Amino acid sequence: MWKVTLQAFAVLLLAWFFGNFVLGWFQQNNAKPKTQHSEHLSRAPDGQDQSCFCQLTGVLDDCFCDVESIDVFNNFKLYPRIKKLTEKDYFRYYRVNLKRPCPFWPDDAHCAIKDCHVEPCPESKIPVGIKSGNYNKYSQAANTISDMTDCEQAKELGAINSTLSNQSKQAFADWARHDDAQDHFCELDDETSPDAEYVDLLLNPERYTGYKGPSAWRVWNSIYEENCFKPRSVYRPLNPLAPSKGDDDAAGEGFYDWLEGLCLEKRVFYRLISGLHSSINIHLCAEYLLDEGWGRSVWGPNVQEFRERFDTAVTKGEGTRRLKNLYFLYLIELRALYKVAPYFERAFINLYTGNSQEDSATKELLLQVFNEIRAFPMHFDEKSMFAGQKLEAKTLKEEFRLHFKNISRIMDCVGCSKCRLWGKLQTQGLGTALKILFSEKEIQNLPEHSPSKGFQLTRHEIVALINGFGRLSTSIHQLHSFRLLLKDNR
Fold first, then answer.
1. Which of the chain's ends, N or C, has fewer CB atoms near its CB within 10 Å?
2. What stretches of 346-389 show up as alpha helix (H) in DSSP?
């Protein structure tokens, strides 16, 4: 009898253990999922790490493209080709005057930090096709016109190339006269100035140099407060570097309410400047001086610096907006490249450096970039801009152009030479993109076998356009790296 009782007790005990196990498993797997808020509270460090990106998703304002599509397109398709293209000789050498005085205030804040220095490229290192002429054209025929006065140029034009048609010769002559008369969005450097020097962009990369403080603040403050369009009812500074003025701007999203009240063109202008600012900040965070010693500097990503510029808590909710403006700027310049593709696809455009094999490879790579851009399905529609009453639209367009041109002049007030170099290049790149977008009819009417009087790009503009977009492409690629770094910091 006792054996039966013992066996029954053992069965009951086993059933009790098994029941508790099943019940615990069931409760664990059927518990309500944590809300985003509760997960944030239970894993505060993780939430803090990802707060820069938690709202960086979905459709961008003022266009029908989403962040995720841009990430995939840029990081896997376009960025590798753009990076390779900017390493080509035609695009790595940029002629710039870094000694122009600031036109707006005394130029008294030159950066003394060694990393601010730009090392110019000796003339002996410049490809012969690039330095052979001051006109910065793209073909051998155009570069043959070099080191001549205007009178000599007119006399010798017929000797450029005996195979050129009279129409082409006249076009080159018109081109030389037309360059300075073009409606530029930027204040262009005088490349014939003795202070203009060639810079190898690969040997002078954009990095955090330590340039900050009142000088840097004054530059950005002048850009935002004096050149961006703002309703009179808005008293809060547009400059994100400006100190907070209390509770009025405690909700960062509220700051952007006024932006929705502006017309599309003025709203776009602000977003372009904000996007450019964000892109530059990402470059500085990604190439930060982490260590310096034993004659060797170590550069790399600084996660804390990135958080200070884009974390939603630190920026009162504005960090995500700043990053979205970067994506918006990317779409604007991407659209410009799409529009200008026919200009470069003509057979006589050679991207001339004097090395025929190198020139051919560069042209082929550029055409591959254009093919990738054509395949992108969600381009910005610029036709909605300046589409109102003709006189009003014309006035607004000119105001838009002059405001941006003024910003390009402010770049000569940057005290750090390396920051000035990359500021001028990226501003020139965006200015060239705007010039392209506002020249659609002229590009559509381009002659197939000769330059056009109505639309043309100098080598200076071409180099700035590709490198400027390359910087935006790099920024979005670096965002992916920061996302992974923040995830690893959990």
1. N
2. 356-375
Closest by CA position to 273, among listed 83, 411, 394? 411
For 422, the token pair is 């990359």
The helix/strand/coil state of 199 is strand
- pLDDT (tens digit per residue) in 52-106: 776 677 667 666 678 899 999 999 999 999 999 999 999 999 999 999 999 888 8
For residue 66, what are the β-bridge partners?
59
3 state SS of 13: helix
Checking 48-53 for CB contacts under 8 A at 24+ apart, the result is 48/311, 48/313, 49/486, 49/487, 49/489, 49/490, 50/486, 50/487, 51/311, 51/312, 51/313, 52/306, 52/307, 52/310, 52/311, 52/312, 52/319, 52/320, 52/323, 52/482, 52/486, 53/483, 53/486
Q: How far is CA 23 from CA 16, 28, 29, in A?
A: 10, 9, 10
- Beta-bridge mates of residue 94: 199
Could you tell me if 466 and 430 are in contact, meaning their C-beta atoms sit under 8 angstroms apart?
A: no
Residues of the chain short of pLDDT 70, as ranges, are: 1-51, 54-55, 58-59, 61-64, 107-110, 112, 132-183, 231-236, 241-258, 295, 384, 386-389, 490
What's the confidence (pLDDT) of residue 229? 81
**Rounded to the nearest 10 degrees, how much is the dihedral formed by the CA atoms of 203, 209, 215, 216?**
90
Structure tokens at 94: 């940029």
| pTM of the predicted protein model | 0.79
